Records
---
Amino acid sequence: MTGNMRSDEDIAPLIELLKIAADLWPPSADISPSEVFRQDQILLEMWPEACRRSGVGIRQFPPGVIKLWKEGIGQTH
C-alpha cells in the first residue's frame, strides 16, 4: 500500500466505487478519452455514496488515487 493511503478503511469505499462503475458502465473497448474522463468525474462525485455504502463514514478521497489518475492522463501535478 502506498504512503498516500491513510488506512485499510480507504480500500472498502474504493472497491464500492468500482462496483458502482461496473453497474453504471459495462466494460467497453470503444470508449473515447473524453468519456473516460467524464466517467472518472462522475465516480469522484459518487465517493461520498461509496463511503456510506461501505460503512466507513465520509472520508476524503485518497490523494494517492488522484495522483495515479493524474499520471494516467499525463499530468504530473
Note: The CA atoms of residues 5 and 62 lie 6 Å apart.
---
Amino acid sequence: MSEVKFLVVEDSPTMRQLIAFALKRIQGAKVVEVADGIEALKKIAVEKFNLIITDITMPIMDGLKLISLIRENDQHRETPIIIITSDLSEEQRIIGLAVGANAYLTKPIQPAELLKLVSQFIKN
C-alpha cells in the first residue's frame, strides 16, 4: 500500500484534529493540517496531495477562493476536493461545487461518513 497524502484546511483546531484522526484510519495515510487558505497554497506549491479537505469559512482566505486558485493550477487541477462546512444552505453547496469542489459535507461530520466519501476519491 502506497502513501496517501491528505491536506486538511480548517481554522478550528478541534475540527482539524477530528478530520485528521478519521483520515489516519486509512492505511498509508499522511495528513498535513493547515489553518487557512494561504497556508494551504504554500503547502500545495511544494507537495502533491491525493485529496484536499477544506472548510469554507476561514480567516485570511476562504475555502471558495482557495478552491478556485487550486483549480487554476495545472498540477492540482484534478486533485479531489471535499468541502466540510457548517453552512447548510443549498446556495453555498451549489457555489462550492461550481468553483470546483468534488463533494460537500456539512458539520457536524461523522467520521464514518467522511471516510466513505474519501474512499470514493482515492484508489486503495
Note: The two ends are 7 Å apart (CA to CA).
---
Amino acid sequence: MKTRSLLAAMTLVVGLGLAGCATSEKSLTEKGMKPLSEAELKALYSGTRKVKWTNAQNRSGTGEFRADGGASVDWGTGSAQGKYRIVGNTLCSQYEGVRGGSENCFRIYKTGDNEYKQYFTNGDYNAVVSFTN
C-alpha cells in the first residue's frame, strides 16, 4: 500500500513539473505578448523551414514546411505527409493519419531567440518549436 501511495505521489510531482514547463497562453498575454501576425508568419514560413518540436505530451520530433504549402512530420516511430496554410494570425496544419486527419490551427508566440510556443485556438498548449534552418 505504501508503495502505491509513493508511486502516486511521484507521478503527481512529475506531472505537475511537466505541466509547469508548458507556459499558459494567458500568462504570455498577461506579459503583453501577442501571437505572431499574419505578415510575421508569412515571413517566417516564406521558404522551406525545418523544425524541431516537443509537444504537450513531452513527445518530440522534426518537421518540414515547404513554400508550396506541403509539410511533413516525423516523431521517430512514425511520420506523415500533409499541408499547412496561414490564416490570419494562425498557422493551420493537416497531416494524413495525425489527429484523425483534421486540420488544426495554432497561435504562435516567439518566446526566445529561436523558441516559439504554439497554442490551439482554444488556448490549450500544443508544442514548443525551434527552427533548424
Note: The first strand starts at residue 49 and ends at 55.
